[in-house]
Amino acid sequence: MTLIKTFSAGDEIVGFYLLKSADVKQTNTTPPKDYFDFVFMDQSGEIGGKLWDVSAVDKETYFPMMLVKIQGLVQLYKEKPQLKIMRIRKAEDEDGVALADFIRSAPIQPVDLLYVIKQTISSIQDAEIKAIVEYIHARAEDKLMHYPAAKGIHHAYYAGLAYHIVRMLELGEFIIKQRPFLQPDLIRAGIILHDIAKTEEMNAELGVATDYSLTGRLLGHISIASNWIVEAAIQLGIGTSNLNIVALQHLILSHHNLGEWGSPVQPQLPEAVALHYIDQLDAKLQAVEDAIDITPESEEWTAPVRAVEYKQIYLMKRKENGG
Amino acid sequence: MTLIKTFSAGDEIVGFYLLKSADVKQTNTTPPKDYFDFVFMDQSGEIGGKLWDVSAVDKETYFPMMLVKIQGLVQLYKEKPQLKIMRIRKAEDEDGVALADFIRSAPIQPVDLLYVIKQTISSIQDAEIKAIVEYIHARAEDKLMHYPAAKGIHHAYYAGLAYHIVRMLELGEFIIKQRPFLQPDLIRAGIILHDIAKTEEMNAELGVATDYSLTGRLLGHISIASNWIVEAAIQLGIGTSNLNIVALQHLILSHHNLGEWGSPVQPQLPEAVALHYIDQLDAKLQAVEDAIDITPESEEWTAPVRAVEYKQIYLMKRKENGG
Amino acid sequence: MTLIKTFSAGDEIVGFYLLKSADVKQTNTTPPKDYFDFVFMDQSGEIGGKLWDVSAVDKETYFPMMLVKIQGLVQLYKEKPQLKIMRIRKAEDEDGVALADFIRSAPIQPVDLLYVIKQTISSIQDAEIKAIVEYIHARAEDKLMHYPAAKGIHHAYYAGLAYHIVRMLELGEFIIKQRPFLQPDLIRAGIILHDIAKTEEMNAELGVATDYSLTGRLLGHISIASNWIVEAAIQLGIGTSNLNIVALQHLILSHHNLGEWGSPVQPQLPEAVALHYIDQLDAKLQAVEDAIDITPESEEWTAPVRAVEYKQIYLMKRKENGG
Amino acid sequence: MTLIKTFSAGDEIVGFYLLKSADVKQTNTTPPKDYFDFVFMDQSGEIGGKLWDVSAVDKETYFPMMLVKIQGLVQLYKEKPQLKIMRIRKAEDEDGVALADFIRSAPIQPVDLLYVIKQTISSIQDAEIKAIVEYIHARAEDKLMHYPAAKGIHHAYYAGLAYHIVRMLELGEFIIKQRPFLQPDLIRAGIILHDIAKTEEMNAELGVATDYSLTGRLLGHISIASNWIVEAAIQLGIGTSNLNIVALQHLILSHHNLGEWGSPVQPQLPEAVALHYIDQLDAKLQAVEDAIDITPESEEWTAPVRAVEYKQIYLMKRKENGG
Amino acid sequence: MTLIKTFSAGDEIVGFYLLKSADVKQTNTTPPKDYFDFVFMDQSGEIGGKLWDVSAVDKETYFPMMLVKIQGLVQLYKEKPQLKIMRIRKAEDEDGVALADFIRSAPIQPVDLLYVIKQTISSIQDAEIKAIVEYIHARAEDKLMHYPAAKGIHHAYYAGLAYHIVRMLELGEFIIKQRPFLQPDLIRAGIILHDIAKTEEMNAELGVATDYSLTGRLLGHISIASNWIVEAAIQLGIGTSNLNIVALQHLILSHHNLGEWGSPVQPQLPEAVALHYIDQLDAKLQAVEDAIDITPESEEWTAPVRAVEYKQIYLMKRKENGG
Amino acid sequence: MTLIKTFSAGDEIVGFYLLKSADVKQTNTTPPKDYFDFVFMDQSGEIGGKLWDVSAVDKETYFPMMLVKIQGLVQLYKEKPQLKIMRIRKAEDEDGVALADFIRSAPIQPVDLLYVIKQTISSIQDAEIKAIVEYIHARAEDKLMHYPAAKGIHHAYYAGLAYHIVRMLELGEFIIKQRPFLQPDLIRAGIILHDIAKTEEMNAELGVATDYSLTGRLLGHISIASNWIVEAAIQLGIGTSNLNIVALQHLILSHHNLGEWGSPVQPQLPEAVALHYIDQLDAKLQAVEDAIDITPESEEWTAPVRAVEYKQIYLMKRKENGG
Confidence class of residue E104 from pLDDT cuts 50, 70 and 90? Predict the structure, then answer.
């Protein structure tokens, strides 16, 4: 199957792709006619497409998140490639294609990501902190198997949230060794919990966060995670004014660093300072790496990357002897 | 007793005052000598004072928050009045002076303020909301009898927090009638709870917030109040994802309106919008009124008022026929 | 007549509506054909509509602010409802429909709003202040009968400006009673005058501010109102350096509070502080209430509300026992 | 007479200087003794000085803005030179010294500055604009003879305001020739009027702005000048909605360019854009030039200059062939 | 030839124009048809145009920056004029039209601009500064003959950069005379060098900056010019820590004044302060003048001008006797 | 020797300390007497001290950066400990104390830090990049042996700059392994060069940056490092428009990320993004660690830490089982 990322104008394409969206629109003709405005995706990227002369049956057949087989022509529209669809049909069981093959995923299997997280929890030595983290992890575990880390800004793909956590844990373990004055338990717990309530803040399927939940909009993931810590403390019989509980809440509440970025308090524990900058380093570099991954080979610059103030990143060719 | 607010240069003063602070300092002479750098207060204001030639006994005698009788002379120092103390002694029981007479207080008795708050709680119709507010109010009730609303910016006096709540409730009841689309239960509950965790965020005695507690510094009063709602919900058997609970948390979390003012989410319920602006209107006007109250009669402008961007307020004389 | 707010996809509509705009556009066909791109409104909201196959006569027939009778079909276009017009004709006298029934209006009759304003003026006790307010009110009275308070951000409807003033006066009377240190004359005069020069800053008809006047753009309503006070003072033989005049100007000039919001000076009279926050409370709550009013019954969130930083407001259903 | 700017540590000074301030303070000794904390000035700069052992007669003898003859020793105190006064007496008539010789002044005589301004007014061709400018100039003329342009930020000396206007007029005449699309009348009128109400905003004597007037604080010089234009228009029988009047007001109101710098509207006439940048260029360069003038010869950097964000300016030595 | 600026709806146009862009697009019809979406320009402005029914030959014939002869009809589309093309052909040699006649240019010939710049260089008295400026000027001279000063914000036309330099030099010479404390060599050198590296930062042809170069994006014109000074110093055998070199670099680095405007250091030489404000005054006034030049006669307001915060400028009619 | 960090009020101290500053001041007595206002330091911290009754010989004896033996009494002054000096003498050779023992230093020997840096340079594979880094390193090597990384904000001690580089290199090596899409040569070169021109920007001795150099103030370390790259390229015969040169300059210029933090361009290479966040993570955590190191054992909070917005950091006690 040809990857969408490699399509170029003039190509005729035949293959299976995932329908990301399927809107019926109308031409400006008299009388106006219906046509389909599609977006197709695979694990390498996305492309728009149009199907003219849509029948009533068609309109009842094609819906988002459905696998289809198409025959189409790649054309340029406003300087961007777009498919003119000539034939389309739904994928059948006998076609042997699986939806999971068409979505963008973290480069490590979810089960392996979860294994790292669980191992890290088991390495926490303070019994209270470990119990709190276990309680909250158990609550979110199913969603961690597939949730993205954000709607778009970084790690926006299948298991992206768990991947972000695991990458931060790698960095966290390095920092713990480099700077022994930091408390390992707080670094580990802070990394695992910092974004975990995104599983309640957002609604997501197949690695795509479609929208925010009501609770997510009214409270935000930072306050939801803070709530979960209180709840865990009460259920586990730990007092809510216990310093471990306060410290865990502080790590979560302060991890965006500034009020204008959503943190009601600023970092005032060494581990809270560390957590913020570990999060930044991972999120920004991943956003850059992801942007590069979906940049067509022919381009020298990525599209503007939201995580770095919408700057474009230059793809300096690696030299023979340089790296 | 002459009120401090009325002292003017050249006056000789005899009377009882409250020692707000009492620092032993040293002159720059050779050899240096100890002297007392005092701040005296009464319900009308504060004034600095110096006692030269301090004995070892004196240093063991005078401490903050003690009532003393003094004889002194009002002098100008850096354009501000200051007392040169000639005689000083501790107040005795037989002097018949009470500490409570020397501190600044809300103009309504604490017991009456608490009565209004309790009556308002009893008027809440939704059983869940009422139960949550009762639970949290019970926890903070003792401190509401005397806590100020802030360290300095507004309502910084005995029972200032309860006074702020009651004034906001008056305004809230007006707004509820003026705009029937608002839900009275949320307005009332939001007003009572919005700053209630200041009783845990700050340490205070006699209406003066001396400093912030550890929990206060690491979490802030907004997140502490949010914690209390979760705790109340669990203890009362109400689910934490119950919409009433989420709405109450949203009111608290958003009442500072913007991230840079400490709110992790912005108002998205009509009652949350109302709560923020009711709070603003009351806090700003009270700060102005308080600044005017402690401005000496001879001045045309108040000192800079922190709550209104450190602007000074002009004391335009009320005309006979103007109000 | 079916209210526009209640239209849903698939409905066939027959009825009278007001043409808010009527643009002739061209299809992308060869040769291109003319069609009408309409916006219809009634007191409940607005909807776009298209009339295909437009004749030369049609083009000379339909213009904005005209009442028409239409037969049309509600379709979805870019997820929003839109009318496909099948028949259209101008309303005739014998149809018995009145333009005033199709525009959005303040919920209180203009004559009643003006009555409240005039009564308030007559309650001002200081003769100079009363004379200034009367002078300026007389100048703007005709426009106060119908002007909106803004182009879009709040009170953007027939007599919206007078409604905003009256609502603020209600709140002002409450505050005057709650805080006797405020001068009632200044509060009342400030409220009546604060936005009154919007009647010169904007051009408006039927409650819709279509654009800004030349003077409005070059000076702004704050400076125009300030000019009017000078002019009134001169015409009434009151010196322009009279403190009442300076105070009234200060109230107007400072009522946006900060330089970046358009105020050249910041509030430095107690009444100026009050005026700003009374204005805020009324404007923000009205913007929220108006946004709710035009939100279709089926929606849980309003459209983004510009007055509250483009946040959407959640329409939490009122409970049986809660409100 | 030795200029203050040239004093260096160890010098013994005898001469006449102007007392800028004369505060009686007390030593920290027991008992405390009175001493005088003086500031002396001449046209080259300022220096502090102390007179120990002050008699009761001394305290009734020395006051600000008095000329005195002193004998003193230059010492270093906190790295800055300061005078230890050994002898002091008031200047007598027979000493033949004049106060005007000791204050900092614009480098051009006030009478010559006013002449330029009046000549410029007479060159304005539009009769209405000329009449307005004449009216306002007449009102402020006496104060223009001596007022500074600001309390401290730039042109803070005798006739500094008139000097600022004249320098801007020179620049304005150049720009008028360089860019014929600008209307000379508006440029000339705008420059003359832009800061003219500082004569009412501030109280000043001998080129020193001591404080702001009540009207100055409540309205600011921009709004006062705007008032004067309205007043002039009415007195001269020109309608206030006359475009010339609106344009003149726009020039004044917008000359600070942005709301946060005090302008309620932003420049929207070409001449308003020009006026703002002519004002900036003159004010910033003058502030730099003034800072250099009072920098002792021995220094390589000026003190921080408020007008350029408190940056210090480097005094690069002029080369033989370079300047 | 009719100037584009004077086209009005209904006109039939025949003449030569320059094709600024020529995009092939498709109609929404079934099947879609290709059409040309053109932009035509001449020295007075630009206009869009559409050519329906495009042949395969057409698509290989018309490209940007080509001169064409057209016959077309001016129609209104979204309230703006647009050409419906009826006939089009390429211009031939025998048509006698030259590309240079169709582009917008500085009002002074490039050769004359360059002459002024060279004369100014020859007037620099310090040998080192002169040598540096000559070296860099020589490098950029060819591009100075035609480069614009910016992509769009100001002086965006043929030789706009040289024109900006020359205009600033005129102003600089005035300021040098007005304020003798400034070093003429630094003012002249600073003006000539301040934007000169835009010739490397941008790619431009025919006065239109099409995009930024790779070096331009990664370093910016300020740092490139700073590099050139280092390079010149080394090639000319002047030490890079020579104060003249440091001062020239400082002038370039600081000329945007603030970090958020791209300057890594703020002005700390008097000439650096002057350079920034001379640049501002020229750039802002030119942007206003240019916006006025392309505003159709019928309009009272320019389009929003980016250089003055997107404000529109009002075209107040010059009075007989006023300008 | 007792460490300064452990002094408490009432202690009598005898030992050797380093004089950080030694100012002669005068008492306010009549006549005023000279006294010494000292600051003493050792590797654990600093303390002020006063020597009363200073002789003429004393004034010629004690100067900053001299080792002295003192006998003194620890007293509290404004709630901070301060020494009252009873005896003082210069340290002699036979006292066997070395200045290096009294200054704060990086925890790793400078020679070892330099070794790591050189090893890293030798691991760079691209010959051009390696040559540039070697050239610049050679220039700064001597100063790298002892320079601090900043005047105060972070790594402000002996060899602090080299220590900062080495710590960042450790983190850089980790990131290179974790994210293979990054070019190791650019990461290594960027880290070594990013702050290296601080050795020219600041004047420092014994690990204390006393002030900024003239070049440092006029250009800043970012532009100086950029200059050095140009110079190295020219001296090494590498073209300045070579992509490696441009990339290295981009890394340096952009490493402060935003214009308001001093970067004239923003990161647009993946390695530039990485460099900024590696720098942040190291600088912030080191600032926190350093603040903790000098916090007396008795304190629960550090002093406000400038690098983290002047927040204080809480010293949560490490638990037995927690890390």
Answer: confident
CATH of residue B138: 1.10.3210
Checking ipTM against 0.85, whether it exceeds it is yes
Q: Which residues contact A218 (CB under 8 A, 6 or more apart)?
A: B246, B247, B249, B250, B265, B268, B269, C314
Residue B322 has pLDDT above 60, yes or no: no
Which chains form contacts with chain E, at 3 or more CB pairs under 8 Å?
A: A, C, D, F
So what's the pLDDT on residue D31? 64
DSSP secondary structure, C259-291, as one string: GGGT-SS---SHHHHHHHHHHHHHHHHHHHHHH
Read off the pLDDT of residues D84-134 as tens digits, 9 standing for 90 and up.
999 999 999 899 898 878 888 888 999 999 999 999 999 999 999 999 999
Least confident range of B25-34, D170-179, D212-221: B25-34
The answer to whether residues A88 and A167 belong to one domain is no
DSSP letter, residue B246: H
Per-residue pLDDT reduced to its tens digit, C177-199: 999 999 999 999 999 999 999 99
Cα–Cα distance measured from residue C282 to residue C263, given in angstroms and rounded to the nearest whole number: 19
- How many residue contacts between E and F have a Cβ separation below 8 Å? 96
CA distance F64 to F41: 11
CB contact under 8 A, E167 and D174: no
User: Measured between CA atoms, how close is A22 to chain F, in angstroms?
Assistant: 35
B11 in a structural domain: yes
Q: Are residues C22 and C118 in the same domain?
A: no
- Cβ contact (<8 Å) for D227 and C226? yes
F25-60 pLDDT, tens per residue?
A: 877 665 667 889 999 988 888 889 999 888 888 988
Instruction: Name the amino acid, one letter, at B222.
Output: I
Pick from A171, A243, A266: which is nearest to F316 by CB? A243
Measured between beta carbons, which residues in chain D are less than 8 angstroms from residue B77?
26
Do the beta carbons of residue A40 and residue A47 sit within 8 Å?
Answer: yes
Please, what is the average pLDDT of chain D?
A: 90
CA-based nearest residue to E75, from E8, E2, E23? E8
Nearest chain C Cα to E300, which residue?
Answer: C214
Residue range(s) defining the domain that contains residue F39: 4-102
In a domain, E67, yes or no: yes
Highest mean pLDDT among A122-131, C257-266, F204-213: A122-131
d(CA A266, CA A255): 8
Mean pLDDT value across chain A: 90
- C57 and C170 in a single domain? The answer is no
CA neighbor of F160 nearest in space, from F107, F100, F115, F225: F107
The residue from C75, C102, C129 where one domain ends is: C102
CB contact under 8 A, E249 and F219: yes
Give residue C321's pLDDT. 36
Statement to judge: residues D275 and D134 lie in one domain: yes
Q: How far is CA D47 from CA D12, D40, D80, D86, D150, in A?
A: 14, 5, 9, 15, 21
pLDDT for A29: 62
**Would you say C215 and C201 are in contact if contact means Cβ atoms under 8 Å apart?**
yes
The residue out of F85, F102, F119 marking a domain boundary is: F102
Burial group, residue E60, by CB count within 10 angstroms (0-12, 13-18, 19+): exposed
Contact F22, F68 (CB under 8 A): no
Cα–Cα distance for residue pair A262/A254, rounded to 1 Å: 9
Q: What is the pTM of this model?
A: 0.90
Q: Is residue B147 part of a domain?
A: yes
Please judge whether C27 and A30 are an interchain contact, meaning their C-beta atoms are less than 8 angstroms apart.
yes
Q: What is the pLDDT of residue D9?
A: 82
Domain count along chain F: 2
What are residue C85's phi and psi, to 5 degrees? -85, 130
pLDDT higher than 70, residue B238:
yes
